[in-house]
Amino acid sequence: MDQIHAGNAEGRHLLVALLLAAAAVNTCADGASGDGAAPASTEAPAAVGGAHPTRVLVQFKAAAAATARAQAAQPLKGLQLKRLLGKHQGVDVRAASAATAGRGPAQALPADASAQRPPPPRLPPPLAFTFTARQSTSASATTGAAKANDRNAATFSSTTNQALPWWTLDMKAARKVLSVNVTARNDATFNQLKNVEVRVGNSLPGSTAATAVNKINTLCLSKSGQLVTAKGKSANLVCSGGAKSGRYVTIHIKTSSTLSKATLSLAEVTVKLQ
After folding, report:
1. Answer CATH for 128-273 from 2.60.120.260, 3.30.1490.20, 2.30.30.240, 3.20.20.80
2. Which GO MF terms are attached to this record (predicted)?
């Protein structure tokens, strides 16, 4: 009787082939001669590929040994491998296939391998969700600057009645702005949107003359007169002369000696970047 020890990847490969050959030889012998010869005996191995693989002793009839050694040089695959593993090894077919194809030692996989997979990585939020808004003043607690950047045209921001009221979007880094789309409130106050300027730059408006909103950053567009003609309508303000670069996009109403104070109220503001 030939004996094979399966204590490493090469031995396991040979063992799988020998088991298959033995099963085929015994089946043919039992069917043809009826001599009642006992099938090859095995001692079932522990999980294949473990830290300390069990040594397995398998005995075969001499007639099957030559065939088994020849088959050991070829990797098992398909239905042959699946049947053999299911009967003798109890090891996931994918693991044994990797071993027999010479890609390294086989590793026993759990029945539900998908349960062991790590969860998919969490994607960062869309860029616009990281922007924050602020305004010169707030008329109430429910009309803060963020209401014009919440993707809900039913809400709105509103300043108090003041000189040079402004609203700005902090994009967290300098970006190239192509245009700004402004949506008016869906009520009678839409006509407050007039004499509007859009500026882009790296400075926030301040309270001094030098940092006044109409003195800082680069002018994107200045629009005299009524911005929209009906409530709830939008106006797309394209920067003249091409994209303007900066961290802050600021909208303000130009006041003058004839219009010393105004209220800036916005339903939605979206910025198109280059």
Report:
1. 2.60.120.260
2. fucose binding; metal ion binding; transaminase activity
